[in-house]
Write a structure and sequence with these properties.
3-stranded antiparallel beta sheet, about 675 residues, 4-stranded mixed beta sheet
Length: about 675
């Protein structure tokens, strides 16, 4: 990338003048004007020469004003042009595809291919800031020198004009003396006009690097500020990536050796499903392909963007999600090829536990469903103990394809049709017989077990419920009932098509939270209340804008840019929609909610020493909400407000009434 501040290119780009009769540099226009005047005035009577000279100078003075007006917006256009070129250059420096960057060179000077680097991009911007800062200082000095020169030349012009008067009025004036005096006046004019031109150009260049003014008021940030924003964001992104790198290394160290339960050990084998899959991937697809795909994924508008600036506006967890989303798709193909049924059946220890039913007690909960979904399957959360198993649906065309639901309900033992009536299938036996996961489950499962099929071959999911433990409080991107599972996938595919996105597949190796069977699940009402408290904190702080058709959050970036009236984070079209997004597992929803939570918690952490001010604002908000609740808020939010204000300030908005006062 050429740096115009190191050459005359930048100054030349401002030295532009165009009239009906002329198009070129103003410097040449001055020279042409002087030449034309000398030629036209060669036969002028000496009595009229001074008047012609002053008239000519006034005309050039007007042209200087015209020159200034013509170029008044050029700094803005040059700024936009440079930033567009800079963005393209940064895209190249950050592209992980192997290509020539002009960085690495062979011994003979030929360029070598290389990959992009965030650190290199940050260093590149840092060098530009250094060069532009030097250029800024240079043009500040040039502008000041030009102003000083103009003052001196104005005096010189008056002196030269006075000398010209004396000579032309003298009875001894000769053509040679008059021509010499005129030439001296023109030389001073030339220097004065060029100094005025240089003063304008130096000032425009200085503004380009600092602040571009409009009527002496800053209208656009100069290039140095723009570059500093790039640099600061890149530094923040680099620190984030370093933090993630530490977390990943720690995770790998902590989880390289683990003791899974017997069933999970079969479903997920680290060596087979991670190490072998990775080696196979590298063997089948070259490094260039992987880096290319990775680059396209992380530079997508939904991830970091072409210039990676989005990375600076995200929390560490959201950056991590983008990286995982970009890389995990390489492994979906090998993971989806895993046949869990075969793995389980080929593992004697697990089969023995399967037959004994003991695997129920040691299996993690993989997913949860709503009660309405279970009702459609003829199941109920009210059962004192309930199990559900979803297994790969490999039974199309098999006699048992319709066996699902409660296996031993109402005293009826549903088993494999070939076991129940061998003679019926003697001529056309099922090739899976005696090597079939569904058959084994039907044969050995205890009562009160539901078998539900899934369309994904790589999944075996187990649910376990004890009365009072709400399964639907578990966070998951999957459902174990086929009808809901299929609907969930269809909905995601439709959203991807409508939005032009490519979010993660619904897969058992997605982002799941596991609860041990011997521990209570988290009450979803508690999680919802904690989230509503954050909404209330933001509302008190006037960071949450609740309108009839929009709920928006004023981000920290909005505050920095003084845009309180234009919130940058849209949380939903209503408070109800915000609560739905809070419980969603879609990446877009998780990102927005995570950013809101992160910034609100950060605001709460900064309340130390400002509790009185916050309490005062809370009192005003409480009184206002008590008179009329804003759209989407409920009566219970007033109690939550009192609770959180007490937590943050150790003061109460109102005292809880004693039981006997409730009767009036």
């Amino acid at each position: 990338m050429r740096l115009p501040c190191l050459t005359t290119q930048l100054e030349d780009s401002f030295d532009v003048f165009e009239t009906q009769d002329y198009k070129g540099s103003f410097k040449d226009y001055i020279e042409n004007s002087i030449s034309d005047f000398e030629e036209q005035s060669s036969d002028t009577d000496k009595k009229d020469l001074k008047e012609e000279l002053l008239h000519w100078k006034n005309d050039i003075d007007e042209k200087i004003v015209e020159f200034r007006n013509l170029n008044s917006t050029r700094a803005q256009k040059l700024r936009e042009s440079f930033l567009a070129r800079l963005s393209k250059e940064l895209e190249l420096l950050l592209d992980l595809h192997e290509h020539k960057l002009g960085v690495k060179k062979n011994s003979d000077g030929t360029e070598l291919a290389d990959r992009g680097s965030l650190v290199r991009a940050e260093n590149f911007v840092e060098v530009l800031i250094k060069i532009f800062t030097e250029a800024k200082d240079k043009y500040r000095r040039t502008r000041n020198d030009a102003e000083s020169t103009m003052k001196n030349l104005n005096g010189d012009f008056e002196t030269a004009l006075s000398d010209f008067d004396e000579i032309t009025d003298s009875i001894f004036a000769t053509k040679k003396k008059i021509a010499s005096a005129k030439e001296k006046v023109l030389d001073v004019c030339r220097d004065l006009f060029n100094a005025q031109k240089q003063n304008f150009i130096a000032d425009w260049c200085y503004q380009l690097f600092t602040d571009i003014l409009w009527n002496d008021v800053p209208k656009y940030d100069g290039l140095i500020k723009e570059l500093e924003q790039y640099r600061n964001k890149y530094r923040k992104a680099i620190l984030t990536f370093k933090e993630i790198d530490k977390d990943i290394n720690k995770f790998l160290d902590d989880n390289r050796h683990f003791e899974p339960n017997p069933l999970f050990a079969v479903i997920f084998d680290y060596e087979k499903d991670v190490e072998e899959a990775y080696k196979k991937l590298l063997a089948e697809k070259p490094e260039e392909y992987i880096f290319g795909e990775l680059s396209d994924s992380v530079t997508d508008a939904h991830a970091f963007g072409k210039d990676y600036l989005n990375a600076a506006n995200k929390t560490v967890s959201l950056v991590n999600i983008d990286i995982l989303n970009a890389t995990e798709k390489f492994f979906f193909e090998p993971v989806n090829k895993v046949n869990i049924a075969d793995r389980i059946l080929d593992t004697p220890d697990v089969c023995e536990r399967l037959e004994q039913g003991t695997y129920f007690e040691t299996s993690p909960i993989y997913l949860g469903v709503e009660e309405t979904v279970m009702n459609r399957e003829g199941l109920s959360f009210k059962d004192s103990t309930f199990f559900a198993i979803s297994i790969p649906d490999e039974y199309e065309g098999k006699p048992c394809k319709d066996i699902s639901g409660v296996v031993r309900g109402n005293g009826i033992n549903r088993i494999c049709p070939m076991e129940q009536d061998p003679e019926k299938y003697q001529k056309e036996p099922c090739h899976m017989f005696n090597h079939c996961l569904k058959q084994k489950l039907l044969h050995h499962a205890p009562s009160n077990v539901a078998i539900t099929p899934t369309s994904e071959i790589s999944e075996v999911n187990i649910m376990h419920s004890i009365a009072g433990y709400p399964l639907y409080s578990l966070s998951s991107v999957m459902n174990n009932c086929k009808s809901v599972y299929a609907a969930s996938k269809l909905k995601q595919q439709k959203e991807n098509e409508e939005n032009g996105t490519d979010y993660e597949e619904i897969n058992m190796f997605g982002s799941l939270q596991f609860d041990d069977l011997d521990e209570k699940s988290v009450d979803p009402r508690k999680l919802q209340n904690e989230f509503r408290k954050l909404l209330i904190v933001a509302y008190i702080a006037k960071r949450l804008k609740v309108q009839p058709l929009s709920v928006d959050f004023v981000t920290e970036r909005d505050l920095m840019q003084n845009r309180k009236d234009k919130p940058g984070l849209h949380l939903g079209n209503s408070m109800n929609e915000v609560m739905v997004r809070f419980q969603s597992s879609r990446f877009k929803d998780k990102k927005d909610i995570e950013q809101f939570k992160k910034e609100t918690v950060h605001f709460m952490e900064k309340l130390s020493g400002n509790e009185e001010k916050f309490f005062s604002e809370a009192e005003k908000t409480y009184k206002s909400m008590k008179e009329e609740l804003p759209a989407g808020f409920i009566q219970n939010d007033l109690d939550l407000m009192n609770e959180l204000v007490k937590e943050l300030t150790n003061k109460t908005l109102f005292e809880d009434k004693e039981l006997d006062t409730l009767w009036g």
